[in-house]
Amino acid sequence: MNIIPKAFISYSHDTQEHKKWALQLATRLRNNGIDAILDQFELQPGADLPHFMETHLASANKILMICTDKYVAKANKGQGGVGYEKMIITSSLMKNIDANKIIPIIKQSGTLEVPTFLRSKLYINFSKEDDFEFSYDELVRSIHNSPLFEKPAIGNNPFKPIVQEKLEDDSKLLDSILSVIIEKQGIELYVLSKFIINELKISPMLFKISILKLNKMGFVKCFFTNDYSTVAVTEKGLMYAFENKLVQ
Length: 248
Description:
Layout: E1 6-10, H1 16-31, E2 35-37, H2 39-42, H3 49-59, E3 62-67, H4 69-77, H5 80-90, E4 102-106, E5 124-125, H6 132-144, H7 171-185, E6 191-192, H8 193-200, H9 204-216, E7 220-224, E8 229-233, H10 235-243
Parallel strand pairs: 1-2, 1-3, 3-4, 4-5
Antiparallel strand pairs: 6-8, 7-8
């Protein structure tokens, strides 16, 4: 089940042009699967503004603070609706708010200022119109928690000593096969695969898959012909078996 993220947009009514910009941003966010909350959508004359702010600030997954010069000044001075929103966010009533839910959005000309209480947070810069699409993509990805680059899994240490190497999930079977190969081969150059299969009572196919894994790891060498197959332990395989006490 997909959960629709909710984003509350906090901004100051600087100009009609800025109100239009905030409206267009909210509309586009809603078109991209985000429940964008904007006063222009929600409030009619006579509406309870404090109740609107308190309710949606508390329930939003993200709070987008559009930081124009006037917005920053009002937030720092605690003026108007912007100041009230700041008070709600920083008050003890909201002490359990997730600090990562606030995203400062810079919408200024020549400056990159955020309210004092947001200075430790990373922001998204929407000041340059030419970079709008890049900034918007970053914002939408942040709200949907869909980063452009996923953290890759940690690979194996290429300098790990042989004695500390670990086989794959079927390590017990591979260890057993390696042990029997060493035992049956003795001082000979190789051992017939059928002897190993009979000793361990496993299917030829499972044996072949296991031998290929051991060969890939450098523990054995295998030779397949139409008539029979042979296998021989390598020096690396012998050292592994000795260090891990697979042989006496």
